[in-house]
Write a structure and sequence with these properties.
Strand order of the largest sheet: 1-2
Strand content: under 5%
CATH topology of the largest domain: MetI-like fold
Number of helices: 13
Number of strands: 2
Number of domains: 2
Helix content: over 70%
């Protein structure tokens, strides 16, 4: 009897290992190994054009050099502001649109969900090229519309005060539908009996969603919050295509600074140090956000 239980337990363990091995193998090859290699390069000095064996060990000097660079501190500040602006705009809109599209009486709600989600499926580079045309100060459609309304034209990507906001608007347009779909998926898990009982007790629309929807949607909102933060802190494509950090470094972000440090200046060690710093920041913020939502 005991021998049979041991044999069954061993078989289950082997089966578990067998099922997990492909996924774990991919994670190790495409996630763990690149992270460890980046950490190793961050402790050395050299360019991307030389073999790893010829890189010179410098310890944590790259980290010290990176933190001493005002341009990298500016890039960090810019990407935090970019992420915060997206959170402030996208999260409330995703909740409101999710609640609207979840209503059964909304005609064509499935079509509306599809239309909202479609921009997320378009490659970011293509989206950036199109929005670059929209933002064009001389003949762009946005300034043309402003002229119809007798409003002054805007500098958009060419203005220090408007360039980052222009990138935020682009990202909101492209990714909002993705987070709306997440919110709708979370709403489907809330039992309708709660709303029916609240209605019988005289609770209005606002009180029902404040005391029922938001608390029960907490896990979904935590996931949206974390994923949105991670995605925005890694912004690169729109900056590379549209601004290259201009004007006056107002749109310079950490990922773009890593790129030009590695490929334009040939400082692979410093670029890797920047990458490891951003990895630590993203991990710390993600853990803090998850703990915060767990305590609410």
């Amino acid at each position: 009897m005991i021998q049979g239980q041991r044999s069954l337990s061993r078989s289950r363990s082997l089966a578990t290992v067998g099922f997990l091995s492909p996924g774990l193998g991919l994670l190790i090859v495409f996630v763990a190994v690149p992270i460890l290699l980046t950490a190793w390069i961050s402790l050395h000095q050299g360019s991307m054009a030389i073999p790893y064996s010829r890189m010179r060990w410098v310890g944590f000097n790259n980290y010290v050099t990176v933190f001493e660079q005002p341009i990298f501190r500016t890039a960090l500040l810019n990407v935090f502001l970019y992420s915060l602006a997206n959170l402030v705009i996208i999260l409330p809109l995703a909740i409101l649109l999710g609640l609207f599209l979840y209503q059964a009486r909304v005609y064509g709600r499935n079509v509306l969900r599809t239309v909202l989600f479609l921009p997320y499926m378009i490659p970011t580079v293509a989206v950036a090229i199109v929005w670059g045309y929209l933002y064009e100060p001389q003949y762009g459609p946005l300034n043309e519309i402003l002229s119809w309304l007798h409003l002054p034209p805007q500098g958009w990507l060419g203005s220090v005060h408007e360039a980052m906001l222009s990138l935020v608007i682009l990202n909101v347009w492209q990714t909002l539908g993705y987070y709306v779909v997440m919110v709708v998926a979370g709403l489907t898990e809330i039992p309708q009996e709660y709303y029916e009982a609240a209605s019988l007790d005289g609770a209005g629309w606002w009180r029902r969603h404040w005391y029922i929807t938001l608390p029960l949607l907490r896990r979904t909102l935590a996931f949206v919050f974390v994923i949105l933060t991670i995605n925005t802190l890694q912004v690169f494509d729109p900056v590379y295509v549209l601004t290259q950090g201009s004007p006056v470094n107002s749109t310079d972000v950490a990922a773009y600074e890593m790129y030009i440090t590695a490929f334009n200046y040939g400082q692979a060690g410093q670029a890797s140090a920047m990458a490891m710093i951003m990895l630590a920041i993203v991990l710390a913020l993600s853990l803090f956000q998850l703990r915060l939502f767990r305590s609410l």
